[in-house]
User: What shape does this take?
Amino acid sequence: MKQYGSDDVSLSHKAIKDTALIAICAAVLFVQQLALSVLPNIQFSTLLIVLYAKVLGFRRTTLIITIHIIAYNLLSPFGSVLPTHIPFMYVAWMLIPISLSTFLKKVNSSLGLALIGFFFGFVYGWMFIPPAVFITNAPFWTYLVMDLPFEMVMAVSNFITIYWLFEPLKKVLTEQLMKFEGHEKNGGSL
Amino acid sequence: MSHVKVKIMISVMVILVALVTIRLLTVENVSTDEGSIYLYITDEHQDTVFEGELAYIEGDSFYDILDRHFDLTCATQMYQPDETCSYSFTTPGAKGKVILGITGEDFSVMTNWTDYFLAFYTYDDGEKRLTTMGPSNIPFQDGDQFMICYETIWE
Assistant: This one.
């Protein structure tokens, strides 16, 4: 029979705490997106995913986005996006942790991240062009032009929220994470 | 200048640029002269229940033309039928009504938005194309042809 040592228990505790943390962060992301659904493209999702990517890291953020996409498309009272569009939605959101873990890793200022958020507002809209054009047969140029106002709203929403709220939220989340990890190092429980 | 003042200035500038851009992208498709369009309307059996020429006057939108010739039922904010058509949906770059039903002298086509809806088609070089704008913003010119079809969301 396998004997479990203190390292196994510690790892198990860490995994449980990580799971709880990821679930809470995914819940915050989901609830705010639902609460702001009445306002087209105005949301804190980009801010939160940038925050998670910077504070929690790539692995946890990937899991949060995965849960969010599944939960949003299953539970949203406004209905899911077209099933053919879901992979594109997932890839679009994943661009944030991927870029912030690789070629944009050194960007840490709120202005720099806000500019990334602004640009992402357009990229997010463009990610839906392939399914719109090739699956639902929407005309390319018309779709591109008609979507621009919505992309602009998302871009500005991303810029303002990241520019003003990233630093204070990062401070709060980092403090909480340090307490959390401090407990972990001392072998204590939450 | 303090850090907060700089942040406020940058934020205001970004918002202003966005508002100007959205305003420039907003097009108002209303007629500049008198004329007429040719319209087909099909019901749930795909039978043509109306076919004819509709005249318009200067300043009309596509919705105005329909409203002048038919009794329209529009959607409220919660997509419930409203015969007064008092509610207009507002989105960035566009404002307009959602038409759920059209009633003429000898026909009536009514949808519920949840399962059935009215699809608006235009003819481009004889080819039927789904319009990319709602009835309040559909561009049109004298002699253009349109088709309004009762369609199910499941097709």
Notes: Residues 3-25 of chain B form the longest helix (23 residues).
